[in-house]
Amino acid sequence: MSDTVVKITNLVKRYKELVALDNFNLEIKKGEVFGLLGPNGSGKSTTMNCVLSLLAYDEGEIEVFGERMEPSRYDLKKRIGVVPQNVAVFDELTVQENIDYFCGLYIKDKETKSKYVEDAIEFVGLSDFRKFKPRKLSGGLLRRLNIACGIAHKPELIFFDEPTVAVDPQSRNKILENITELNKQGATIVYTTHYMEEVEQICTNILIMDRGKSVASGTSEELKKMIKNTENVVVDIKRLPAEKIEELKKLSHVYEVSYVSDRLTIKCAGGRHNISHVIAFFEKENIEYDRIYSELPTLNDVFLEITGKELRDKED
Amino acid sequence: MAGRIFVTHLKLALREKHALFWTLAFGMILGTLFYVAFHGIYSQESLDSIPTALVTGDALESMKDGEGNAVDIEGMLKELTYDNGKKMLELKTVSESEAEELLANGDVDGVISVTLDEQNAPKFSLEIKENGIGQSVLTVVVGEYQASFDYLRYLYENHPDRLADYFARNDQVIDYVEAKNIGGNNKDPYVAYFYNLMAMVCLFCSLQSLAAMCRNQADIDDVGKRTNLVPVNKMVYELSALAAVYVIQFVATSLVLCYLNFVLGVDFGGELPWLFLMTALGTLLGVSLGFMVAHIGAKSYDKKETILTVITLLGGFFAGLFYHGMKAVMEENCPIVNRINPSAVITDSFYSLNMFGPGDRVTRSVIYMLALAAVFIAIGSLLGRRQRYASL
Ligand SMILES: Nc1ncnc2c1ncn2[C@@H]1O[C@H](COP(=O)(O)OP(=O)(O)O)[C@@H](O)[C@H]1O
Ligand SMILES: [Mg+2]
Description:
The complex is a heterodimer of chains A (316) and B (392).
Chain A: E1 4-15, E2 18-29, E3 33-37, H1 44-51, E4 59-64, E5 67-68, H2 74-77, E6 80-83, H3 95-104, H4 110-124, H5 139-151, E7 157-161, H6 169-184, E8 188-193, H7 196-202, E9 205-210, E10 213-218, H8 220-225, E11 231-236, H9 242-249, E12 254-260, E13 263-268, H10 274-285, E14 291-295, H11 299-307
Parallel strand pairs in A: 3-8, 3-9, 6-7, 7-8
Antiparallel strand pairs in A: 1-2, 1-4, 4-5, 9-10, 11-13, 11-14, 12-13
Chain B: H1 2-15, H2 17-43, E1 50-55, H3 73-79, E2 89-93, H4 96-105, E3 110-116, E4 122-128, H5 133-158, H6 160-170, H7 173-177, H8 179-182, H9 191-214, H10 222-227, H11 234-263, H12 272-294, H13 301-319, H14 326-333, H15 335-340, H16 342-356, H17 360-383
Parallel strand pairs in B: 1-2, 1-3
Antiparallel strand pairs in B: 3-4
Helix pairs in contact in B: 1-11, 2-9, 2-11, 5-6, 5-14, 9-11, 9-12, 9-13, 9-16, 11-12, 12-13, 12-16, 12-17, 13-16, 16-17
The structure holds adenosine-5'-diphosphate and magnesium ion (MG).
């Protein structure tokens, strides 16, 4: 048996004129934490909903567990867990009742179900809130309930659609820990987000998408090797004349210099000791600066270099 | 699995108090209003006979009953009595011009005219100048007469074989429309408004089934995304949820029935178990109507709710909730509406229960309501068969 869990081939999805997915391809292997990274509106949720047979698509093939996914493939659905982008629980039911209900739709045996529900409550850390109605929960706890409802039946394949959006840092860390833990327990994870740090933190394999297309894929290291950017030297500096910026650009290995709100970013491709060259330049020119440090490129740089735009929204 | 879905949806329906509240509140408040409005009328010991002019021209001469006798509409009208035995109408048979004058001078409350249409069927019309108790009673009387004659005509044209049966049961034509049969066991003509009210209450149940069904739709409700992903057949899921809504709503409609019957003392003119059966079937119609509308393509809950509200209110209007003669008017001009308008169908069943008591006609009503509910559910299922959503 092949170890491919999800396979998408030439998927096309249109909303009227808008092409939301444009010949999109993807393959997810068993045991991966697969990160689907892209800015808002790039088509992550659309992809997920197509795979789940919620959404009709125009062209393409979708296979899950090596079989064609259809709305009536209840046997496949049984093995899948989903944590949708928006919290999807019944407001009238308590935390425990919600988890119990959804788990009960997958697990027939009453005892097993009860145990699974307990596990799920423990797992997401909602033990103190089991009798709470969703309305009474904070945003972060609500997200955890949303997760518990999606994973209580211990599925083999779990989809998370931006589970950490608008979540306090504590819940966010808990959620990321949970996902890693679920993966350790054997589940294959599909993780959708526009936060590159999260993807770098937990994903074993990453696909970057933009405007319904796959832009690049691989591990975080592989992705970073794809671009010429190898190092960014960042300097906090109060005032810098424009001609100095031009001179900085002439330093070897430097290919781009930007100066925005007192922060100078010098992008370098290759070369060693780039930071010492910059320091030497400032000494020579007698320019004062506050802080200087060197950064490795991030996935944001990968995205920026490939698409020419920022991955993250300005407001994030 | 179905059991779990059912039980949880019972819980949901009970905790979602709005829907339950509206069914109950609507029935009780409007029922009380009707009661206050009509009670004053028919509880008065000293109800006056209503001065009325009757214009028949020579129309009646050419109208014969089964045995060739001219139908004595005048006699029938004269025999109408209130509960306390007092004559209902103070009838003067006059010419058209005299009638106009009487009405203009306020000497009569209304003019009842009987004419014949092309098929020699009697057409009743009522002319009134102002609104008052007398005029309201006349409106009801004329509406009932028209409906009764129309029914006879319907029998005559479509089931002549049943006519004999019918006459045997009713002695002669007149009996059917005679005063004591205007409201069957219950002689009070206003009871028809309470049938309409019950129909309306039953149809209000559709709002809760709509709400419950829309929650299962991924393009309307976020919870719907989850319920579309569970490994349970969609129809099984929806029908289990629908059954729960039905049970809860039946409790509500039954409470309204009890309130009208026991608290207000409205006499529906049928035995209690039968009244509950009619209420149960009416609720079923309401709930399945909501199910059907829930599966109409529109991607918005509000749109569907509007559609349903329009159906319910228009249905109520055509069935006579606001003007009792309306159903007769529809029967004459567009009978199909009365067959598929759930409000009219429910009103009719209560009506025939009162009019005929348990028997063939009521059995037919029961079967018809079941069939119509089945049609609604079938249409809903067909529309909801769509396997994937075009957009979320
Ligand atoms: N129901 C819809 N109707 C029309 N356009 C839609 C609809 N849903 C999503 N889109 C569009 O499709 C694109 C992809 O959306 P989505 O998959 O939600 O992106 P993401 O999840 O990556 O933020 C966006 O341009 C969005 O505006
Ligand atoms: Mg999204």
